[in-house]
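TICKET: design request
STATUS: open
ATTACHED STRUCTURE:
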C-alpha cells in the first residue's frame, strides 16, 4: 500500500454526522501503516452533540493514532516550518471552513494547519460536508477546485428532497484519494451519486 510509511494529517471540523465514517478511515489509514496526526477545529473539540461528545472524539483520536490531537493555532503552526506531514486532509470540511480557506483566513487550528502545510506546496485534500454547497458555498468550491495543491474527495448530493443544496464527500474513498493526491492527481469523476 502506497500510504505505508507516510505521515498524514487528518483535520476534523464540525460536521459531526460524518464522524463515524471519518474515524473508520483514520483507523484504516493507521492499519495501512500511515503515521496519522489529528487536528480539531475549535468547535470539533468542544461541542457535544447527539453524535457523541467532544471528549469521546478526542480520546478516540489519540487511541487510534497514538498522538495527542492538535488543538491550538500555535500547535498547528509548526506544520509549516517543520514540514512533517506528507499530505493533509480536512475531513469533514464544513462550508464555514471551505469559505475561510478560499479567502485565506486562519482563525482555527484546522485552517492554520492547512495554511502551514500548503505553504510547502504539499497536497491538501478536502472531504466536504456542507448543507449549502450548491448555494452560498458553490463559489468557494469553484475557487478551491481551481487552486494548486488542493484535491477533493469525490462528493454527491446526500438528500435532494430535504436538503437540495447539500453535498457530502464519499468518505470511503479517502485512502485512494490520498494516494492520488501524493501523486498530484485529482480522482475523477469528482461528482458522484451519493447512496
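STATUS: resolved
RESOLUTION: sequence designed for all positions
ATTACHED SEQUENCE:
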Amino acid at each position: 500500500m502506497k500510504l505505508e510509511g507516510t505521515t498524514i494529517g487528518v483535520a476534523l471540523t464540525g460536521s459531526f454526522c460524518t464522524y463515524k465514517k471519518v474515524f473508520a478511515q483514520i483507523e484504516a489509514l493507521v492499519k495501512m501503516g500511515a503515521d496519522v496526526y489529528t487536528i480539531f477545529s475549535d468547535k470539533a473539540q468542544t461541542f457535544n452533540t447527539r453524535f457523541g461528545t467532544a471528549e469521546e472524539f478526542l480520546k478516540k483520536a489519540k487511541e487510534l493514532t497514538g498522538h495527542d490531537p492538535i488543538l491550538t493555532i500555535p500547535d498547528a503552526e509548526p506544520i509549516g516550518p517543520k514540514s512533517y506531514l506528507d499530505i493533509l486532509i480536512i475531513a469533514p470540511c464544513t462550508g464555514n471552513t471551505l469559505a475561510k480557506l478560499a479567502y485565506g483566513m486562519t482563525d482555527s487550528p484546522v485552517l492554520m494547519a492547512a495554511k502551514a502545510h500548503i505553504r510547502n506546496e504539499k497536497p491538501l485534500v478536502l472531504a466536504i460536508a456542507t448543507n449549502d454547497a450548491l448555494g452560498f458555498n458553490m463559489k468557494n468550491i469553484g475557487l478551491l477546485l481551481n487552486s494548486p495543491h488542493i484535491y477533493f474527495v469525490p462528493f454527491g448530493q446526500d438528500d435532494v428532497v430535504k436538503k437540495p443544496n447539500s453535498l457530502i464527500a464519499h468518505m470511503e474513498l479517502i485512502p485512494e484519494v490520498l494516494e492520488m493526491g501524493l501523486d498530484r492527481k485529482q480522482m475523477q469523476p469528482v461528482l458522484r451519486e451519493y447512496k
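CLOSING REMARK: The mean pLDDT is 96. The two ends are 27 Å apart (CA to CA).
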